[in-house]
Amino acid sequence: MAELNQEPMTKAQLEYLRRQRTREMRQQLVSFGLMIFLTFIAFGLTAMEVIPAQFTIPLVLGFAFIQVILQFYYFMHMKDNGHQFAKLFMMTGFYFAIAFCVTFVYIVWIGAPVN
Amino acid sequence: MAQTSARKQGVGSVIWEYLTTVDHKKIAILYLIAGGFFFVLGGIEAMLIRIQLAVPNNDFLSAGLFNEVITMHGTTMIFLAAMPLLFAFMNATVPLQIGARDLAFPFLNSLGVWLFIFGGIFLNLSWFMGGAPDAGWTSYASLSIASPGHGIDFYALGLQISGAGTLITGINFATTIITMRAPGMTYMRMPLMTWTTLVASVLIVFAFPPLTIGIFLLMFDRMFGSNFFIVEAGGNTIIWEHLFWIFGHPEVYILILPAFGIFSEIFATFARKRLFGYSAMVFATVLIGFFGFMVWAHHMFTVGLGPTANAIFAVATMAIAVPTGIKIFNWIATIWGGSIEFTTPMLYALAFIPSFTMGGVTGIMQAAAPADYQYHDSYFIVAHFHYVIVGGVVFALLAGLHYYWPIMFNTMLNETLGKITFWFFFVGFHMTFLIQHFLGLWGMPRRVFTYLDGQGYNAANMISTIGAFLMAIAVIVLVVNIIITLAKNERVGMDPWGDGRTLEWSIPLPVPYYNFAQIPLVRGLDAYWVEKKEGNGKMMPSESLTDFHMPNNSILPVVMSLGLFIAAFGAMYFPDGQEWAIDAVSGLEPKPWALPVLIIGLGITFVSMGIRSWKDDLGYYVTKEEVERDLEELERGGK
Ligand code: HEM
Ligand SMILES: [Cu+2]
Questions:
Q1: Of B59, B421, B574, B590, which sits with the fewest C-beta atoms within 10 Å of its C-beta?
Q2: Which atom of ligand 1 is closest in space to residue B360's alpha carbon?
Q3: Could you tell me the fold of the domain covering B11-638?
């Protein structure tokens, strides 16, 4: 139940919170920079065609995967405590989604019952 | 403010109270009334089906009307009767069982029930507005895209609205159970009703999005000119079947798990024994939930997925029987050696074991893919799923109605009438559906509106119809029982069955609107029983008596749902007479007002969402003095 009767914080608590927030901010900025950088490389590789497509595709997918992880852990706070259930749900969701995609590709298109 | 004072209220204010309530106990009653109404409606449709099939070459219903009736029967029973009635019991009991003052999101709880009610009304308006959906409750795209008129649109939009409500409610229960348990209520001390609600809610969270997507694709094909399922334009109708069954199989477990929960409580209470193998029960529940997602293609064995896919899904399906079997044995071991009391709920529970097991066994038969080529789309399938759904879910709903009635209404349903209902229902149920296995094996197809004389189906169909009438008598006796009980209104006290084990029975009746004056301390599995045996028979408080916070009532959920209801009409008539529309509706009169109606409806919903977001609604405090007054009054009344 939401507790609305709030008491003012002590000085030490405030200090601690400040330090925490600063660190959090730094982490977010770093991961944000990293993500921009990865996006930039991905675009660059695709636009300039410096390496063959067979390599570009897995590379871009790999970058995307790293970005998803950064997004979840640093922006959506999965790294913090108390998120075990959120993690469990997301992992299960991933598992089901991937399983569905694999079966779809296999039995709807490659298995192609309509052909 | 939401004070339930002793003061007599006028009819208007009672209605307003129920329209705006966010109290889980009142929302439970809303679910019960609306779900009960749709249950009766679906039951009437069932009787029409059985009358039509009672004799060969019958023309009681025309072929087209028959298709509409079977579609509406299945859709109504699954989405508008069984699920809401289960939500009624979850709402009535789960917060009390875990020692919470309400759900995690009381506002969303109200939104959930109103979305369901408006979605259900929308779906049923189809009867009066040009014809009901007629492609079966599974609404396979090859049929539903071709179905002329607006029937299928009512199905798609109605289910989309009520499905949103279900998804919201699933999230709400999962959050509540994870975060709002009383001190000492660890996961492995949660009553099974709470456990099964948790797993069913998680299944809802994962299973409803595929349905939502499937229905969205169907809506876009039918109303906005896309081609997802339209084969001539490069679409693929099989995708609908996959999306539907990815939802559909977990859905049957969403229904049966809470039913298992209700029965587990009843067995322990009326055998006066701790549930046998509690941790195995929990484990089996979770395992069933997980496996439930891996087996959907067993509904599609005959589609032509190929032998590899069929084999994988056949094996996965058979695996589900293992945790289900564990549960059956645990229930038997629970009653084994118990001192059994044959109350009405217990009769349903005892009858449930063999009935449901028979449905499980036919399930395994169907899971053998090559054999299923024989069973599929025959009456054998109809017999299977009615054995699990009626013998499992409906028995649980009827048992739960008698068992939890005192918590919801502070009175007791009449036991004699309850037992009469039970016997009529039990006999009628087996009479109706047992013979259908044989009809299926003899070759009678499902979803066909009549059969010829001389095929050997006559006697069996007549028996089945007579059984259906016995079930109808049972429901009528039940309704009479309810009316008599409400009219007499003889109040009962705390723990009316005398053998309550879990927290919900430790609360005075009527349950105060804040549930617990002090949140109790839980000292073991079957918290109340522990205190009865080891303590002084009262729950120990885990906190001192202080002010606590409660949410305000709000009319916004009704307004939001109404907005979507209006928008649905706009969406439905939008493609009429348009040249890009599918053949089913392109010949109809164009409706230029459709787009404005769509926009106005969505506008109402979004504006009310905005009000909810930007206008602060901080709730109110229940004061210590008020609670003390209530407690004193209780003391005086009790002595
Ligand atoms: C032992 C567990 C179960 C097994 C192995 C099983 C297996 C199956 C199979 C293979 C089918 C498809 C048959 C066909 O269409 O050819 C089926 C249909 C069905 N089952 Fe089950 N089942 C089980 C339990 C349940 C439960 C617990 C429920 C509901 C509470 C249920 C509800 C249904 C429904 C509604 C259908 C028919 C859907 C339709 O085509 O309209 N089943 N089952
Ligand atoms: Cu299934």
A1: B59
A2: 1
A3: Cytochrome C Oxidase; Chain A (1.20.210)
Asked if the Cβ–Cβ distance from B205 to A85 is below 8 Å, we say no
Q: Check pLDDT > 50 for residue B81.
A: yes
- Confidence class of residue A115 from pLDDT cuts 50, 70 and 90? very low
Q: What ligand 1 atom has the least distance to the C-alpha of B372?
A: 16
Same domain, A74 and A99: no
Does the distance separating the beta carbons of A96 and B239 come in below 8 Å? no
Cβ atoms of B23 and B574 closer than 8 Å: no
Considering the domain architecture, whether residues A31 and A75 belong to the same structural domain is answered as yes
Give the pLDDT of residue A4: 55
User: Is the distance from the beta carbon of residue B295 to the nearest atom of ligand 1 less than 6 Å?
Assistant: no
Task: State which residue of chain A sits closest to B245, comparing Cα positions.
Answer: A100
Residues of chain A with C-beta less than 8 angstroms from the C-beta of B231: 114
Q: Compute, in angstroms, the gap from residue B249 CA to the centroid of ligand 2.
A: 4
* Domain extent at residue A59: 11-79
Q: Is the CB of B255 under 6 A from ligand 1?
A: yes
- Mark whether A75 and A89 lie in a shared domain: no
Query: Which pLDDT does position A76 carry in this prediction?
Result: 78
- A25 with A55, same domain: the answer is yes
For residue B385, what pLDDT is reported?
95
Q: Measuring CA to CA, which residue among B167, B183, B181 is closest to residue B94?
A: B181
Residue A50 within any structural domain of the chain: yes
Ligand nearest to the CA of B392: 1
C-alpha to C-alpha distance for A64 and B105, rounded to whole angstroms: 35
Size of interface A-B (CB pairs under 8 A): 46
Task: Specify whether A23 is located in the same domain as A58.
Answer: yes
Prediction pTM value = 0.90
What is the count of structural domains for chain A?
2
CB–CB contact A85 B297 (8 Å): no
Residues A69 and A16 both lie in one domain: yes
- How far apart, in Å, are the Cα atoms of B401 and each of B31, B78, B218, B259? 12, 18, 37, 12
A108 close to B (CB below 8 A): yes
Which of A83-87, B390-394, B487-491, B562-566 has the weakest average pLDDT?
Answer: A83-87
B472 close to B427: Cβ distance less than 8 angstroms: no
Does B182 score more than 50 pLDDT? yes
Residues A91 and A74 in one domain: no
Q: Give the whole-number percent of chain B exceeding pLDDT 90.
A: 71
Cα–Cα distance measured from residue B546 to residue B297, given in angstroms and rounded to the nearest whole number: 55
- The verdict on A94 touching B (C-beta cutoff 8 Å) is no
Indicate the helix (H) or strand (E) that contains B191.
none
Nearest to B439 by CA among B452, B425, B458, B467: B458
How many whole angstroms from B252 Cα to the centroid of ligand 2? 7
Structure tokens at B96: 């009390």
Query: CA end-to-end span of chain A, whole Å?
Result: 57
Q: Which amino acid is at B344?
A: T
